[in-house]
């Protein structure tokens, strides 16, 4: 009985964790919240790539950044302000999301990504197979610990 | 002869190209050097160590706020996790390598990492810690600040050393580049100068050539005029000579003896030959000056050739030679000037007659070959040596001059033949075997019998 209750409570906690807002997309102070669940129910893209912050090729999966931007009708603007958990913030060119299959990675090698591993959300470019993405400029746009997308 | 200027020009040109290549090369090197300027970038070593210092500071701040009960455990844990991820970043992959290159003491990051691992459980359950433990935790993380700050300073120092080295290098490259550019400019001027000198020379040479050409042209005109005058001056007296001879021959001036008649006949024949020579000379001159007018019309080639065989037979008989046109010649029509084409056939036939042995026959034939009508004149004469064949169409050329004179001939006939045939859009060729005979082939385009061209 105790086990069942524990399992139930645990599942509630887990459910809550999945329902927690991880990403806010703010357009002219209109806020859209995305939980892990929201992001994972969107069409998923998976690719294996290397980058400067991981050792060897790693499989990343998650929704396309352009799908998320499209939901807030952000595909026509030039830049969005992207902010991370550690308050790191840059201007992100929307064209990148259109030109490449840039994803908001929610999983690394199939596992959810912890904050310690630069999660829970990590903007990821398919560097492997796109040599032009090896330019250092793209390294700076792979925002880890993504928290917020802002547009005016 | 090539002037030394040409060699000089090429030398200068190659030096110029080499200079431009070296400029391009050094610009490329410069570009790649500039690409390595990485200090301020988001993934550069300076940024990395400073961010680490900042993240440690933010964690310490969160911890202090927690001790003062200004914030909750979740915030502390978030800062802890962020610090953890930052430490992981500087310890792994490209970043670790880069920091090592920039002489960042890696043991500082290792020690911080150990502290994180050792305090992980404590921070995760921080709400259970007592004030003393919290203080110790704060002191423990605080002890890393100085070492981390020193690491940042050493990275900064290394960065400034590198930047200076890079700047010096770029300065050196740009100096080299400026010098090369000046050299290139000088050589460019030199090559320009060479071109000017050469063009002056060329102009002078061209002027000389023009003068020579003018002289040659004037000589040619003089020659033509000379021929015309000679023709005229020859023909006029010749006409009166012929007239006089025929008058005497007709017994109008009294009966003449048979002996005298035969002498007159000889004189008459020679006059005829002289007249033919003059006509040929005039024709050649006309062909030269492109003053020949053609009157083209539809011409039935087979009946034309039969008629020509008949006309020229009299002449051939003098050499004891018969002319036979093939009775089965096909009915072919060409677009031709009958009078000029008659010149072609009579030249070819008289040549054939002259070179044939007595009793032989000259054969005329006609065939169709594709879009062309080809008629041939074949004799069984002594043939033309292969070496001569190419030259027989040249004016005044004769195969064996000593013998020719006996037979009588100007050496102009075949030249006229070629001019006329080419004016008809055709061509004349021959095959000849020494001792067996010669066949001339005249190729003329067939006249399209379609009504559209006729109307």
Strand content of chain A: 25-35%
Summed over residues and divided by their number, the pLDDT of chain A gives a mean of 86
Largest sheet of chain B: 5 strands, mixed
Put simply, the count of helices of chain A is 5
What portion of residues of chain B is helical?
55-70%
Overall body shape of chain A? globular
Q: Main interface pair?
A: A-B, 17 and 19 residues
Low-confidence segments of chain B, ≥5 residues, pLDDT <50? 450-455
Number of strands of chain A: 11
Which oligomeric state applies? Answer: heterodimer
Calculate Rg of chain B over CA atoms: 54 Å
Q: Which strand order does the major sheet of chain B show?
A: 2-4-5-7-6
Give the averaged pLDDT of chain B, no decimals. 84
Beta percentage of chain B is 5-15%
Q: Tell me the span between the first and last alpha carbons of chain A.
A: 53 Å
Low-confidence segments of chain A, given as residue ranges, are none
Structural class of chain A: alpha+beta
User: What is the rounded distance between the termini of chain B?
Assistant: 59 Å
State the shape of chain B. rod-shaped
Q: How would a crystallographer describe the biggest sheet of chain A?
A: 5 strands, mixed
Q: Give the topology string of chain A: H per helix, E per strand.
A: HEEHEEHEEHEEEEHE
Architecture overview:
The complex is a heterodimer of chains A (152) and B (455). The mean pLDDT of chain A is 86. In chain A, the strands form 3 sheets. Chain A has a 5-stranded mixed beta sheet. Chain A is an alpha+beta fold. Chain A contains 5 helices and 11 strands; from the N terminus they run αββαββαββαββββαβ. Chain A has helices at 2-19, 36-41, 65-71, 94-99, 136-139, and strands at residues 21-27, 30-35, 44-49, 58-63, 79-84, 89-93, 103-105, 107-108, 111-112, 122-124, 146-151. With 455 residues, chain B is an alpha+beta fold. In chain B, 69% of the residues lie in helices and 10% in strands. Chain B has 13 helices and 7 strands. Chain B has a 5-stranded mixed beta sheet. In chain B, strands 1-3 form a two-stranded antiparallel ribbon. In chain B, a hairpin with a 2-residue loop joins strand 4 (361-369) and strand 5 (372-378). Chain B starts with a helix and ends with a helix.
């Amino acid at each position: 009985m105790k086990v069942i209750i524990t399992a139930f409570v645990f599942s509630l906690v887990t459910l809550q964790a999945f329902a927690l807002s991880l990403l806010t997309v703010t357009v002219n102070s209109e806020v859209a919240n995305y939980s892990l669940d929201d992001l994972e129910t969107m069409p998923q893209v998976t690719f294996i790539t290397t980058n400067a912050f991981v050792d060897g090729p790693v499989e990343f999966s998650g929704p396309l950044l352009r799908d998320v931007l499209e939901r807030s009708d952000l595909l026509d603007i030039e830049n969005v302000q992207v902010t991370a958990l550690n308050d790191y913030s840059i201007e992100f060119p929307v064209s990148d999301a259109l030109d490449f299959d840039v994803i908001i990675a929610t999983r690394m090698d199939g596992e959810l990504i912890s904050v310690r591993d630069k999660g829970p959300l990590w903007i990821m470019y398919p560097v492997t197979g796109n040599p032009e993405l090896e330019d250092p400029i793209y390294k700076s746009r792979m925002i880890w610990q993504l928290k917020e997308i802002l547009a005016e | 002869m090539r002037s030394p200027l040409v060699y000089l020009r090429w030398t200068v040109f190659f030096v110029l190209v080499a200079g431009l290549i070296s400029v391009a090369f050094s610009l490329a090197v410069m570009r790649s050097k500039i690409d390595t300027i990485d200090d301020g970038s988001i993934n550069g070593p300076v940024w990395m160590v400073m961010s680490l210092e900042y993240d440690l500071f933010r964690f310490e701040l969160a911890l202090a706020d927690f001790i003062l009960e200004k914030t909750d455990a979740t915030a502390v844990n978030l800062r802890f996790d962020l610090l953890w991820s930052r430490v992981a970043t500087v310890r792994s992959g490209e970043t670790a390598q880069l920091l090592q290159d920039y002489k960042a003491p890696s043991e500082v990051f290792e020690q911080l990492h150990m502290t994180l691992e050792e305090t992980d459980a404590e921070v995760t359950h921080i709400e259970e810690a007592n004030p003393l433990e919290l203080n110790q935790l704060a002191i423990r993380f605080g002890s890393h600040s100085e070492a981390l700050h020193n690491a940042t300073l050493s990275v900064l120092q290394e960065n400034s050393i590198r930047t200076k080295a890079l700047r010096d290098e770029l300065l050196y490259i740009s100096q080299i580049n400026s010098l090369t550019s000046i050299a290139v400019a000088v050589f460019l001027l030199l090559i320009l100068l060479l071109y000017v000198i050469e063009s002056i020379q060329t102009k002078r040479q061209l002027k000389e050539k023009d003068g020579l050409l003018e002289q040659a042209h004037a000589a040619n005109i003089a020659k033509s005029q000379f021929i015309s005058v000679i023709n005229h001056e020859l023909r006029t007296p010749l006409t009166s000579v012929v007239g006089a001879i025929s008058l005497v021959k007709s017994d109008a001036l009294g009966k003449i003896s048979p002996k005298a008649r035969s002498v007159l006949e000889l004189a008459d024949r020679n006059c005829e030959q002289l007249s033919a020579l003059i006509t040929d000379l005039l024709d050649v001159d006309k062909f030269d000056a492109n003053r020949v007018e053609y009157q083209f019309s539809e011409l039935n080639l087979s009946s034309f050739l039969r008629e020509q065989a008949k006309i020229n037979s009299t002449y051939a008989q003098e050499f004891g030679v018969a002319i036979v046109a093939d009775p089965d010649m096909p009915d072919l029509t060409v677009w031709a000037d009958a009078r000029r084409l008659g010149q072609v056939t009579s030249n070819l036939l008289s040549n054939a007659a002259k070179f044939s042995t007595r009793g032989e026959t000259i054969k005329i034939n006609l065939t169709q070959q594709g879009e062309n009508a080809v008629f041939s004149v074949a004799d069984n004469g002594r043939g033309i040596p292969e070496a001569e064949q190419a030259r027989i169409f040249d004016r005044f050329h004769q195969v064996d001059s000593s013998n020719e004179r006996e037979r009588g001939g100007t050496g102009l006939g075949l030249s006229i033949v070629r001019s006329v045939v080419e004016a008809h859009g055709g061509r004349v060729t021959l095959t000849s075997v020494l001792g067996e005979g010669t066949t001339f082939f005249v190729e003329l385009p067939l006249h399209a019998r379609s009504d559209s061209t006729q109307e």
